[in-house]
Structures are given as C-alpha cells and as structure tokens.
Design a protein that fits this description.
The chain is about 40% helix and about 15% strand. By secondary structure, it is of the alpha/beta class. The chain has a domain at about 10-190 and about 230-260 and about 295-310: Rossmann fold.
C-alpha cells in the first residue's frame, strides 16, 4: 500500500508466520512482507475474528500460504511454525468489553494460545518471536507519558491476558533462549479494521454510522484521550522487531505509538469534517475497564529498534476515512 521500506535484509531468504494474519494488523503486515519479496508468508488463523476477504488479494502470490487452524491447539501451532524463521504473533481475542463479558474465552485464546505458540516456536527453532501486547497493561498507572518500566494494576481480563503474555515471553527467553520482543500497541487504527459487530473499533464504527446517518455513541464525556496510532506504524515495528540485530532489544517490551494524544471528541470532530457531516453523537455511560488518558513514551523503541513512526494522527486518519468512505458510500 505504501512505498516505505523498513528493513535492510533480503527478505527472499526468509519464511514468516503471521498468526491472526486474516485480521486487521496481521493482514497489513502480510501485505508488506509479500510486497517486498519474502520467501514465504504463512498466515495462521481460525477466521473467528479475522476475515478471509482480507487475504483475497494475496492468494495468487506463490509466496503466500494460508493455514486454517487454532492457536488453542498445540498441534496446530507446531504445524504452523514448521520451517518458519520469524513469527509475528497477532492472533488474540481483542476488546476490553468482550473480555469482561467472556473472561474464559479471552484467557483460552490469549493465554493458553500464546503459551502454545511459544512452545511451538521454541521447538521449531524460530529465530525471533515478536508478539502483540497492549497499552492496557498500564492499567491504573496514571502518570503520562507511559514508560515501559512503570505499570499499574490491570483493569480487565484482556489486560491481564496481555500482561501474562509479557511474563511468559520473558521466561521463555531466560529459560529456553527463545528470542522474543513484545510490542505494546496504543490504539491502532487504519484500513481493514472491522466496523461491524458488538466489539467494533471506534474509528471505522464512527465513519460507517456517520455515513449511514444512524446513532453514534461516545462512551463517557468524550474527553478521554488516546495515542491513536496508524496501522502502518505497527507494521514498521513488527518488521524492525522480527529482523532485529540489536542484542539489547531482545526480550524487551516496546511502546508502539506516535507520542501524541487526542480526545475522542476531537477524533469525532475530525471525522465529521472529513465526511462533511454535522451528524451529532449520543453520549452514554463510561465503559468498565477503560482508562481515562493514554500517551506513550516511544523513546525506547526509537533507541533500540530504530522505530520512527511515519504517520501521525492527522494523515493516518485521512487515509482511514477515505478507505471506509469508499466502502460505505
């Protein structure tokens, strides 16, 4: 989609596994790896939240493979990791509200499934295991900006699951020598997010409902802030982490964001402007488990990974709104 290259290595000699590759972030990463000539890009997904339509454009590429399976099955994880050099583990059950409603499913996928992937990656000799963590692990730690070394108590089962991932990954590095890097995502948005369903992401949900002139809800007063991060920045972080050659970065956790925060009200207003709409939102009670403000310190990722976000809130939002406008108009 974009002509920015984040790697220096020749990808044609490496095989990559993207778990959750039919999902939002995963499919954008798959697109990058195939575009720059990876030897093999295998997607491992059970299509429970990911969409087959996100992969259709890759089916004619001989370097692309799709393995339908479930990370809750260790056998499936072993098959998926066979012959793989680098893993980007994106598969998870997202959404704080869903985790509050379905804690057992969140744990089964995000904790049991994660452990299965670590075991399989270790046993198959994977060179680097990169995994998606979340800013939700900061919990009730109120200070801004968020620095990786200072977290609070988790506020949801989802946050617990992601923090557990970080603990397990560290243990697999120290105990078994598996090279791991964790990426704490801050409110990733962009093309291919799903605006449908009970746990739809806020930006595509706003766009689709404004275009349809149906009721749009904002939780709380809308003044809560987030470090909204365009998906291509997450793609960059995954590529840099998988191909990392800096020993100091191994077994570390990195904030992946832009380093700027904006309120949900500001987000909604900007979307309105881009859609030339005055469609007013409806405010409702604050969601359980939500933090009030979020802002990342990304200096660690810059220093150790060479991460440099190429898209800010404004230009990322413009691309995203155009994408969904073309779909829903």
């Amino acid at each position: 989609m974009y002509d920015i290259q984040y790697h220096k290595q020749d990808l044609s000699q490496y095989s990559f596994l993207v778990t959750g590759g039919a999902g939002f972030i995963g499919s954008n990463l798959v697109e990058y790896l195939l575009k720059f000539g990876a030897k093999k890009v295998r997607v491992f997904d059970n299509l429970s939240t990911g969409r087959a339509s996100n992969l259709e454009e890759f089916e004619s590429n001989p370097a692309f493979e799709f393995f339908e399976g479930d990370i809750r099955s260790l056998d499936d994880c072993r098959k998926a990791c066979k012959g793989i050099d680098y893993v980007s583990h994106q598969a998870a059950l997202g959404s704080v509200p869903r985790s509050i409603k379905e804690p057992e499913n969140t744990n089964a996928v995000n904790v049991d499934g994660f452990l299965n992937m670590l075991i399989a990656a270790k046993d198959e000799g994977v060179k680097m295991f990169v995994y998606a963590s979340s800013s939700s692990v900061y919990g009730d730690e109120a200070s801004l900006p968020k620095v990786e070394s200072k977290i609070g108590s988790p506020l949801s089962p989802y946050a617990v699951s992601k923090y557990t991932n970080e603990l397990y990954a560290k243990v697999f590095n120290t105990t078994y020598g598996l090279k791991v890097i964790g990426l704490r995502y801050f409110n990733i948005f962009g093309p291919k997010q799903d605006p449908n369903g009970m746990y739809a992401a806020v930006i595509p949900l706003f766009v689709s409902k404004i275009l349809a002139c149906t009721e749009v809800f904002i939780d709380g007063d809308g003044e809560q802030t987030r470090d909204f991060t365009f998906v291509e920045n997450a793609v960059q972080a995954n590529v840099l982490a998988m191909l990392n050659e800096n020993a100091e970065a191994v077994a570390q956790i990195f904030n992946i964001a832009v380093g700027e925060n904006f309120s949900v009200n500001r987000l909604y207003t900007d979307i309105q402007k881009q859609l030339d709409s005055n469609h007013a939102p409806t405010y409702r009670e604050t969601r359980k488990g939500d933090i009030r403000n979020s802002l990342a310190d990304i200096s660690k990722a810059k220093d150790l990974l060479g991460y440099k976000p190429q898209f800010n809130f404004g230009n990322g939002l413009a691309i995203t709104v155009d994408y969904f406008r073309n779909i829903y108009q």
